[in-house]
Amino acid sequence: MKRVVKVLKELVTLLPRETVGPVVPLLASCHSSFLESNGLMTTGPYFPRRGQKTYPTKTTVRPQRPILQMFLHLSQLEASKGVDPEYDQALLDFFLPYHQFVETLFRAALSQGLMSQDLVNLSES
């Protein structure tokens, strides 16, 4: 995931006009489908778990479909912040690249005059 986000950040940085337009509606659609769903989504094998020391193997069960958004329902957290510093760091390592990517999208759109309501909504989440 980190490599994909890194490539996307590079594309947005190098070609903002060509990438911001298609990527923002895609992300907005993923976010809105999560918000509209009543059930919890599968977090997948790479989501941090308390006490997990290694990454899962390829044979681990994966989500039914790829998930691009990075929302998390509070009931899916295994511990409150501050209870387990290793778990807190694992969550930060998992979510930070995505949120940095959204920040890159926002900055590129702002500098190129490509701001949209969808992008503002992404930056608030």
Automatic annotation (TrEMBL):
Domain of life: Eukaryota
Protein known as: Uncharacterized protein
Taxon lineage: Eukaryota, Metazoa, Ecdysozoa, Arthropoda, Chelicerata
